[in-house]
Amino acid sequence: MRFRAGIxxxxxxxYYLGAMAGRERYEQLNSLLDRLRxxxxxxxxGDKAKAVVDLGMERARDVVDLRMGxxxxxxxxxxx
Length: 80
Description:
The chain is mostly helical. Helices cover about 80% and strands about 0% of the residues. It has two domains: about 1-40; about 40-80, no CATH class. It has two helices and no strands. The radius of gyration is 23 Å and the shape is flat.
C-alpha cells in the first residue's frame, strides 16, 4: 500500500511541477533528452548494463542447474 501511495504522490508532484514549468521548459527538456538518446555515452552505458544483466542471468542459471542436479557439481540440498 505504501508503494501505491508513493506512486500517487510522485505522479501528483510531477504533474504539478510540470504544469508550473510550462511549454517552453517542456521543449527545452525534450531537446535535451533527444540529444542524450543520440549520444554515444548512453549507448555505451546501455551495452554495459546489458552485459551485467546477461552475466547475472548466466550465474542464476548455473545456480539453478546446480540445485537441480543438472550441473557438473554435486547436488545441493537444504541440509548442506
